[in-house]
Amino acid sequence: MRHKRSDFPEGFLFGAATSSYQIEGQSFGGAGRTHWDDFAETPGNVVRGETGARACDHYHRYAEDLDLVAAAGLDAYRFSINWARVLPEGRGAANAEGLDFYDRLTDAMLERGLKPCATLYHWEMPSALADLGGWRNRDVAQWFGDFTELVMRRLGDRMFSVAPINEPWCVAWLSHFEGHHAPGLRDIRATARAMHHVMLAHGTAIQRMRGLGMGNLGGVFNLEWASPADDSPEAQQAAARHDAIYNRWFMGGAFKGEYPALALEGLEPHMPKGWQDDFGTITAPLDWCGINYYTRRVLAPAPGPWPQVQPVEGPLPKTFMDWEIYPDGLHAFLTRTARDYTGDLPLYVTENGLASSDELHGETIDDPWRNEFLDAHLDACRRAVAEGVPLKGYMIWSLLDNYEWALGYEKRFGLVHVDFDTLERRPKTSYHALAEALKG
Ligand code: FCB
Question: What would the DSSP string read from start to end of 297-319?
């Protein structure tokens, strides 16, 4: 890698991120069923019908995995807590084994000098709550608040930072409008409700954690740069609408107490009653803002019902996800976020990375694309820092190759290779390059 730790301000945090369903193994330790199990077991939803039943077996191998985080010289580990592992029915009786697991995991991070950065929802809605409507049901905010309190009464004293919900756009739009993720709906009314309830649940969880006296609480938003396909006013409008739905809805909700007009124009008729009165909760003050950034999308107008936007293929080189590589988008989001939404609040890049091919050379697993990708995005971070953006850390997605949702185990995002037959972990060349860069 071209970068080294000393290229960044003193105290800048480097971390790696994972999430529970993608690595733990849902079939272990008394975890309940989730809507991801239901979605994955429905033919056609996931490549090869793969599920997270075993995943990376992190549930049993977490010590080895945290050794890898520490040996890379990373400062922080971003992980998530599986709602259905803690509360198999989503509410009611807790699974003691589940809480004990996160307790051990937390202590294991601290023993290795790693800062625990928790996320409370990285997409495993307990099936029992999905039966009641999941994100479509307003009660989800209180169910989630109760789960948050239960977990943080146990772990809250040892967390470095906590965010309630990973990537509200994916929770709401991708899963209820595009149908690509669980619960796999394609329904505008469900979408409008999920878009609002996910923000209400976010604010409710923040309030509950404040009630426990906790600090360093933030939000984690996935942002995708929207580029118009051409100079026409129609294409500009399509890109602006995508930006409103994808990015500005969540940032506007959390930091300004408003949703953008360009998104409300389609969603307002489908919003739950009284939504305008919820911003007091939704804007519960945060201590930091996390940005997950991967790519941009090129957009053109489309016929048919709102939002009349369609993606078109862009000209830039792409990762194995077919996502364009566009580091300027990260720089643009860091500066725009500070300018339009968060001011002096600390920002973190909470996810950035790529799926790439691994080449086996003797004992070495070579992934040259990863170094290049990370360097280009670290450049974008450095430029933002130089311009005064209060960026305080950068986390790589992901520590391990893992269950990449609807794409199953096919797309490999890890610094560490996982053999999904033997479960053997083998650091790739990018892992070693990163460890070298972080030394000293
Ligand atoms: C993000 C998700 C993460 C992973 C990466 C590739 O949207 O937060 O779980 O799937 O994309």
Answer: EEEEE-SSSTT-EEEE--SS-B-
**Tell me: the pLDDT tens digits for 102-157?**
999 999 999 999 999 999 999 999 999 999 999 999 999 999 999 999 999 999 99
- Tally Cβ neighbours within 10 Å of residue 439: 10
- Per-residue model confidence as pLDDT tens digits over 414-435: 999 999 999 999 999 999 999 9
Is 405's C-beta closer than 6 angstroms to any atom of ligand 1?
yes
Q: Which atom of ligand 1 sits closest to the CA of residue 170?
A: 7
By CB atoms closer than 10 A (0-12, 13-18, 19+), residue 357 is exposed
Peptide bond into 183 cis (omega under 30): yes
- Which amino acids are annotated catalytic? 167, 351
**Pairing, β 359-361 against β 364-366:** antiparallel
By most ligand atoms within 8 Å of CB, the mutation choice from 180, 397, 415 for ligand 1 is 397
Contact 19, 353 (CB under 8 A): no
What is the residue type of 301? P
C-alpha distances (whole Å) from 378 to each of 8, 285, 387 are: 9, 28, 14
Q: Which amino acid is at 114?
A: L
Tell me the CA–centroid distance for residue 354 and ligand 1, in Å.
Answer: 10
- What is the C-alpha separation between 422 and 386, in angstroms, rounded? 45
Crossing angle for the helix pair 429-438 and 368-386, to the nearest 10 degrees:
30
Please tell me what DSSP assigns to residue 48: G
Closest CA to 59 of 112, 95, 9, 10: 95
β-partners of residue 76 are 15, 115
Task: Give the integer Cα–Cα distance in Å for 281 and 35.
Answer: 27
The percentage of the chain sitting over the pLDDT mark of 70, rounded to a whole number, equals 100
3-state class of 421 per DSSP?
coil
Q: What is the pTM of this model?
A: 0.98
Structure token pair of residue 378: 């670290």
Q: CB within 8 A of 31, min separation 6: which ones? A: 24, 82, 84, 85, 88, 95, 98
Residue 314 has pLDDT above 80, yes or no: yes
The verdict on the CB of residue 401 being under 6 Å from ligand 1 is no
DSSP-assigned beta bridge partners for residue 383: none
CA distance 258 to 439: 44
In degrees, to the nearest 5, what angle opens at C-alpha 81 toward C-alphas 80 and 83? 135
Cite the beta strand spans of 72-228 per DSSP E: 76-80, 115-121, 161-165, 218-228
